[in-house]
Amino acid sequence: MTIAEVEQGRLRSPFFPRQAELDRLFRWHEWKGYASADGFYDTTLEYFSVRNSTGVFDLTPMTKYRITGPDALDYLNRLVTRDMSKIKPGRVAYAVWCDDEGQVIDDGTIFHLRQGEYRLCSQERHMAWLTAAAIGMEVSIVDETEDVCGLAVQGPTSFSVLQAMGLDGIENLRPFGLTTFDFQGTELMVSRTGFTGDLGYELWLTPDKAIELWDALFDAGKLYGIMAMGTEALEHARVEAGFIAAYIDFLPADVTVRTGRSRSPLELGLEWLVDFKKPNFNGRRALAEEKRNGSAWRLVKLDIEGNKEAHNSYIYAGKKGGKNIGFVTSAMWSPVCKQNIALGTVQAPHGKVGDKLYVEIYYQREMHWSRVMAEATVVDKPFWDPPRKRATPPGPY
Predict the structure, then answer these.
(1) What gap in Å lies between CA 283 and CA 152, rounded to an integer?
(2) Is-same-fold flag (3-60+148-241; 253-379)?
(3) Check: CATH 3.30.1360.120 for 3-60+148-241?
(4) pLDDT for 293-309, tens place per residue?
(5) CATH second-level architecture of 253-379?
(6) What is the pTM of this model?
(7) Omega into 393 within 30° of 0, i.e. cis?
């Protein structure tokens, strides 16, 4: 998709005029009706901006639902697997929601804006499911995707940029916290959240002030290496952080055709998000049974020998004559970690931390295809996890 095609009918983010001025690659894709850039200058440069300075990603196409009403908390507690009563106003929660079979429909973030008022953000559209889940409850669900635009401001200098922009008190914002500022007469909401595994923030406001926000942000970031980044750079960062993505690391349960293709939270390494102590929630019975009997699959983080990326590779229990036990879903060579890394899904009981597995990698050099069986170690920590992402206040960088 070129800029010309974007201008001929795709929904455009309020930040598009500034993005078009920066674009040198002319590579765009559709994200739920919006045009979203694969990149602007060079994927490698944009990736290093989020690891060495500040990268800015346009979040506007993300689906946003405003959930209010007397039963808003009870509704969310029925919808998602974690206990939302523990998420106080001014906090943000990562959550997943399942069908009746305990299979993940999607994941996202839930912002507790104020008492009884929430915003659910997700990659996919879910109004039909959310509405069906609200039957019998006094709750209002409004799609406000086009009414709120957003920017992810991520990287080691992100705090310094926002401080230079005049957001006094930003140093007190804790991870997964949110606060508001006055920005030219409009409320600017800032959350300490992101999809990069680094220090970072997300900025939210009404579209009529989008250009002013972009200009103020980039003016404040001139001395801090600020750079716009596209989806390709964000994808590298999220794999290093060990974050999963719908349609890449799992298939939403409501779109699967064949059995066994979806995954439960327990199979995606998200057992910490499933609270069996709270009242009933969608999929609870199936998940309780799975916990008793064991899961069929397990998400693994793999540290792979060599430097050949393991895209779409099969995973084996042994190097020679070993059983095919799964496959890689996300893979990359990590420049900052100096590791060949991947996320994958394997059949239980394989995939315990410390297990040695083998990955079948095919790669091409000068039109010649080669095959290597690379040893892979299952690890339990994110590949990229700097202390600064948790520090409050963050230090200047």
Answers:
(1) 32
(2) yes
(3) yes
(4) 999 999 999 999 999 99
(5) 2-Layer Sandwich (3.30)
(6) 0.94
(7) yes
